């Protein structure tokens, strides 16, 4: 079955540590996205990538980093510079073509800073 | 930039009641409009979409019509079920067509 996988589902981190969240898709999509969701709030875009080896900052990129070395993978690193990293993180992908703009989401990773 | 405003929740209904969740938008150009649903602890699922004015998106008994004259995309369902309890997000494409802009989400609670 085609889809998006995120791992792990729950992640705990000590203050001051970097942590990497995994996102893999087998939909052959060109575009991938990372969002942050806080309780009672909508989704805020962290980074997005429209093609391999290229990515752009979203609305809240500070304290985060990404890479896009393979079409299927778009890992997100939450660095120690992120002041309030506890949140639910969602990865999404889309075909990237104009007019085919539906995004498909993974199940999410809940990050808790201890 | 493009933006979307949803009615605040939570919305609490009895089973078989009629549902309306309001969504209005501001946009440059001709965005596509979406409704996504999020069940507790899960990612978002596409519920329906519309790509041009007067289009009606529909799925699982839900429907929404793209109204350019009122810049609205209200979600409706004739008879809700307990299993419809979730958070509903309205979204639209940004002015360049390569990102989605989401509303804050509306919590729906359906009681039996």
Quickly list its features:
heterodimer, A: 114 residues, mainly beta, 7-stranded mixed β-sheet, 4-stranded antiparallel β-sheet, 11 strands, B: 112 residues, 12 strands, 0% helix, globular
SSE string of chain A: EEEEEEEEEEE
Stretches of chain A where pLDDT is under 50 for at least 5 consecutive residues are none
Helix content of chain A: under 10%
Poorly predicted residue ranges of chain B: none
Report the β-strand fraction of chain B as a percent range. Answer: over 45%
Assign the structural class of chain B, choosing from mainly alpha, mainly beta, alpha/beta, alpha+beta, or little secondary structure: mainly beta
Number of strands of chain B: 12
Helicity level of chain B, as a percent range? under 10%
Helices and strands of chain A: which structural class?
mainly beta
SS summary, helix count of chain B: 0
Along the chain, the helix and strand elements of chain B come as EEEEEEEEEEEE
Radius of gyration of chain B: 13 Å
> How many helix segments of chain A?
0
Shape field of chain B? globular
Would you write up a description of this structure?
The complex is a heterodimer of chains A (114) and B (112). Chain A has strands at 4-7, 10-13, 19-25, 31-37, 43-51, 54-57, 64-66, 76-78, 87-94, 104-105, 109-113. Helix content of chain A is 0%, strand content 49%. Chain A has 114 residues and is mainly beta. The model of chain A has no long low-confidence stretch (mean pLDDT 92). In chain B, the strands form three sheets. In chain B, strands 2, 5, 6, 10, 11 and 12 form a six-stranded mixed sheet that branches. In chain B, strands 3-9-8-7 form a four-stranded antiparallel sheet, with no helix packed on it. A two-stranded antiparallel sheet of chain B has the order 1-4. Chain B has 112 residues and is mainly β. The model of chain B has no long low-confidence stretch (mean pLDDT 94). Chain A binds chain B through residues 4, 6, 31, 33, 40-43, 45, 48, 50, 58, 90, 92, 96, 98-99, 101-108, and chain B through 32, 34, 36, 41-46, 49, 51, 89, 93, 97-100, 102-105.
